[in-house]
Amino acid sequence: MSKVIPEDAQRPPGNIPQVALSWLVRDAPEYLERKTRAQFVPPTVSIKDVHAAVPRHLFQKSTAKGLYYIGRHVVLSVLFYVFATRIDQLSWKAAAALGWSSSGRALVSWAFWALYWFWQSVSFAGMWVLGHECGHDAVSPYAWVNIICGMGLHTLVLTPYFAWRLTHRAHHKGTNHLARDETYHPMSRSDFKKLPDAAHATKMDYKEILEETPLYTLFKMVIRQFLGFQLYLIHNRKGNPKYPPWTSHYNPDSKLFKPQDRNAIIVSDIAIGLMLLFLATWSYKTSFHNVWSLYFVPWLWAHNWLVMFTYLQHSDPTVPYYREKSWTFARGALATVDRPVFGWIGWFFWHGISSTHVAHHFFVSIPFYNLPQVTEAIKPVLGEYYCYDSTPTMYALWRSFTQCTFIEDEGDVVFFKNQHGEAVREYVEPEAEEKKAREGDDEAWKLAGF
């Protein structure tokens, strides 16, 4: 049986709760409440009941409304760019108005660049989100509109549209299914070759094999946040290990895809190649430093944001993973956490991708602007299995990164264990409702919008 962490464990060390900013580094009440329910019985929620709870008008897609959101987003990104091209001029004027010397002007210039990098990176991440919506055919009822908009938005941020669209749909069809899910595949005990099995592992074993210094953990976290998504696209880093080494989203013959997908992957590759050619030409005509400042710095920061919110959607100490015997579509959809990531920024620029992700997993093609209403409609049906967590985003990210260390190699339902071999919840064998809950997944996919 898994060792369950006491309710008061894993809180920030020292006197942090006593300082003014303690709310930034503490678990939210919703998370603590889930921990109190340490004995986890898998849900038997009916996909039909969930579907029936949603008013029919929320399924309707409006091309005009979808294009409005895309147009608004692109305009804001262009305005940020125009601001950046005038930073030198603005810095001179600001420094002169303040009576500052050249060193003061340099300080103002750096402040303006930091402002641009932040907001443009937020905007780039939002472009990726809107491309993701197009990939689900959620922007317009017309396929060609979704394809053109999705291809344009994803190519602008160097994401191969068709390739990622296909594997992301596979993720939705097998969410938190250990054999079928495509992304953020957890490490298992056997991946740590020197770690004994749970019955024989001692505290010293965990300490010697799993414990890391905070500095090394931070280094790994930075690499994953800024480069992890591109490494996943290039060679399946943190993807499902069932694929051969160096499986790539850019390879038309990759095991990620079916033979009939080959031409679409080639189209994605050509689009990415054209974008890279544009960036190279831009660098040649101006300078690499110019393109680095205007495009690549916010592009890298945008990766940090999108890895942050996609990782936190499913990677949490209180969220289960399933093996074949126990997985259902509804259970996979419920292995999702809604989070108010960065407040109004998450709603306005990232279109609520984190705040309404549970509803999105149940209904992938419902437009994002209707998902808040869908969420409220299905909450009564989901009951205690609806996961919401208002833990401050950066602390939640650190918590998941440091506590979601590995899962056991056996068990129909497993939870993450931390570096001490402890889990916050444990699986309890369900009763007769199990068979009923597993029926009808083919129909569930249809109801979800696949």
TrEMBL record:
Q: Which Pfam families match?
A: FA_desaturase (PF00487)
The GO annotation for biological process reads: lipid metabolic process
TM region positions: 66-85, 106-130, 142-164, 264-284, 290-312
Q: Which domain of life is it from?
A: Eukaryota
Fatty acid desaturase domain: residues covered: 112-388
List, in alphabetical order, the Gene Ontology terms for molecular function in this entry: oxidoreductase activity
Q: Which InterPro entries match?
A: FA_desaturase_dom (IPR005804), Fatty_acid_desaturase (IPR012171)
Cite the entry's keywords alphabetically.
Answer: Membrane, Transmembrane, Transmembrane helix
Q: Does the keyword Transmembrane helix apply?
A: yes
Q: What is this protein called in UniProt?
A: Fatty acid desaturase domain-containing protein
